[in-house]
Amino acid sequence: MKAGVRALGVAESYRGDESTLAGAVVRASRVVDGFVFGTCTVGGTDATETVHSLVERLDRADVRYLLCAGVAPAWFNLLDLPAIYERVDRPVLSVTFEESPGLESALREAFDGPALDERLATYRRQPDRRPVTVNGERVFVRSVGVEDDAAADVVRGFTPEGGRPEPLRVARLAARAADERFVGDTDA
């Protein structure tokens, strides 16, 4: 992957009823050149819209890929990767770091009625997770708008060491820092 290729990583940090989503633009060369922040409701259904809003507000045509840390931020506020892809017009990848039997049983335990039905429908629209080996570590990737082998190459290309792609690592740090800042402001 060329050093100047950029990806937007989106990760979260949450406290209370609201989750901070941070977006970090990172080049394959590990240069960070942009941030954007938003919020979504813990246990809500607005995460997909928030991610779209981050991309729209960032307004960076040079960002070639969107990487999301999982599909269930903010306590099952599910991301709809195909819907995001249709709106942002670039490949969308979700990366997770642990093997899992899936979310259906957890969703059934946490929700019922229309809330469960909506989440199950969103979850079932998502592409399957595929294991990808990165620097000797195993991650799991879902992708829309890019073939499986190319998605694995994208993840590897943005992961200079360890198993966490740099855009997601930086976005997670930014989200946590934003939460710390806001928590500090409310404690004063």
Overview of the molecule:
With about 190 residues, the chain is of the alpha/beta class. It has one domain (about 5-180): archaeoglobus fulgidus dsm 4304 superfamily (archaeoglobus fulgidus dsm 4304 fold). Helices cover about 40% and strands about 30% of the residues. The chain has helices at about 45-60, 75, 80-90, 105-110, 115-125, 150-155, 165-185, and strands at about 5-15, 20-25, 30-40, 65-70, 90-95, 130-135, 135-145. Strands 3-2-1-4-5-7-6 form a seven-stranded mixed β-sheet, sandwiched between helices. Strand 2 (about 20-25) and strand 3 (about 30-40) form a beta hairpin. Helix 1 (about 45-60) runs parallel beside helix 3 (about 80-90) and helix 4 (about 105-110) packs antiparallel against helix 5. The longest helix has 22 residues, at about 165-185. It is globular and about 50 Å long. The mean pLDDT is about 95.
Large-scale geometry = globular
User: Could you spell the SSE succession in H and E letters?
Assistant: EEEHEHHEHHEEHH
Helix count?
7
Structural class: alpha/beta
CATH fourth-tier homologous superfamily: archaeoglobus fulgidus dsm 4304 superfamily
Provide the CATH architecture.
2-Layer Sandwich
CATH top level assignment? Alpha Beta
Q: What spatial order of strands do you see in the largest sheet?
A: 3-2-1-4-5-7-6
What composes the largest sheet? 7 strands, mixed
